[in-house]
Amino acid sequence: MIPTQALVYCDQPLFDAYEQQLVQDWLPIEITQLSAGQFYGHYREVGNEAFRVVFEQQNQVVHKRAIIEKDFCTISFERTTQNQVRVSEYNAFENSLFFLPANVEVDIQAEGNAETVYFRFEQSALLESARAMNPRQWEMPVDSVLVFDGVNRQPLELFTDYLYQLSAMSSDDRQPEQQKHLNTSVMEHVLLSLDSSLLFDGQETDVVARRRAAKSVRLAIDYIHAKLDSHICPTIIDICKDVCISQRNLQYHFKKVMGITPNAYLYRLRLNRVRSQLLRPTDINMTVTQIASDWHFWHLGRFSNDYLQLFGELPSATLRRTFN
Length: 324
Description:
Blueprint: E1 8-14, H1 17-22, E2 29-33, E3 41-47, E4 51-58, E5 62-67, E6 72-78, E7 85-87, E8 90-91, E9 96-100, E10 105-110, E11 115-122, H2 123-133, E12 146-149, H3 154-165, H4 176-195, E13 198-199, H5 205-229, H6 236-243, H7 247-257, H8 262-279, H9 288-294, H10 300-311, H11 315-323
Antiparallel strand pairs: 1-3, 2-5, 3-4, 4-11, 5-10, 6-9, 6-11, 7-8, 7-10, 9-12, 12-13
Helix pairs in contact: 5-6, 5-7
């Protein structure tokens, strides 16, 4: 049993996808802005060692790559109703709930203005309670993303609204028993919602096709990130060779899963890498030209224009804000 600790509260406006990434410093995650325009978002978090509830919203399309923490799992859903979130090969649908188990790599794409919420628990504690409530549903090992059709998600949504309104948690003076009750109540609401849900088997033709496409896209993106981490800019030919896929299929799979071509993804990812370095330069003497060159942008006029189109400000303005 995890001891009850004081609740912590975070309520932070976001002005960059990189800020959205940094605020979740307890989770290995990279967030890339894909759509063009100035970024605005909001991050709210409440919880302690027993649970954590996170609310995220941003006005731009973002792509998230993360590995769920060891020993912890999350249950998430889209708080808005437009079904604008994809988790791995699964698109959100009305009343969907996503179970993301420990140590699993997930690939999430959220459209602009989508708001998501997720609950984080110690996985062994959650599964112990879930199996006590419904042994048959949870008898299998949980080692991949599960999707549930939340037949009656309304009680969880109403409880989530209550949690969203909690304020001034950093100076919370609740008694230990009250905090313990809140901890229990959070897990109970989540488990009751899961227990009243139907496990989505994902065998529909479109899901199976998207799963195949998502596997190829994940391998390609892993390769792209590995090369960029070594400051090597891969070509489409390099990607096709590494993933063992034709250029036509690679294009088709990216469009099906990401909604953009692999070239567009690679280009925007490089612009995001530049932005993260401009926001956190390793040397006060670093220049925009040096950082752009690090990420293989050689035509500086075109680079500056494309950066402006994607982020709504010139790269020089980003660097200037860093030192102000």
